[in-house]
Amino acid sequence: MRVYLLSHVLREDDPVYPGTQPLRLEQVRSIARGDTSNSWRMSSGNHVGTHVDAPNHFDDSGLRVEDLRVEDLVIERGLVLDVPEEPGGVIEVEDLRPHERLIGKCGMLMVRTGLQAYRRSDPSRYSGEGVSLHPEAASYIAGFGTVRAFGIDAISISSPLRREMGREAHRRLLTSRRFLIVEDMDLAGKPESYDVVVVAPLRVERVDGAPCTVIGIMLG
Questions:
Q1: What phi, psi does 102 have (nearest 5°)?
Q2: 220 has a pLDDT exceeding 90
Q3: What percent of the chain has pLDDT over 90?
Q4: How far is CA 49 from the centre of its chain?
Q5: Which CATH class is domain 2-14+47-218?
């Protein structure tokens, strides 16, 4: 069995979507200062780093993170598609249609745009321009009954340059469905297929999304 981390370490200097509170860490107990243990205080928005959007993110009656079942989080057959985009680009149906046969067999579709390269080299472009998933592409993905989750190596499926387009893409994937969106993934240099993908969010009551660890597993 081979396993791969498909999520980033959460750091204070991570780029975040405009308007999102970044991670802040404060050490409140320190062995080095004479305390008996180490302890930290953490604060952030809930859509920071690699994170999952539960249906409640855009559907007020949709499932929250606390409502997700184990079977929602353990997904068979993960597929990574390379769809190169520049900052501000748009993922269209035409980018996905040539891979229709593969998409129809997967449980989690992940798109590797290459935008991850900007995450450290130019974080303002990574977070401020991003990429968009076109609403028609979202509908195309939602039309596959097998696909239960969508992931991307960009800050969001909603570019800050095209917010309404991104909002509509979110709605088409999340409204009245058991579906997950995982954003800000670490897909660089990773394999293109997995037997199982595990999406493990912080299970916090009431919230519509949460930071998560994502593990791709190749059996045999």
A1: -70, -40
A2: no
A3: 100
A4: 8
A5: alpha beta
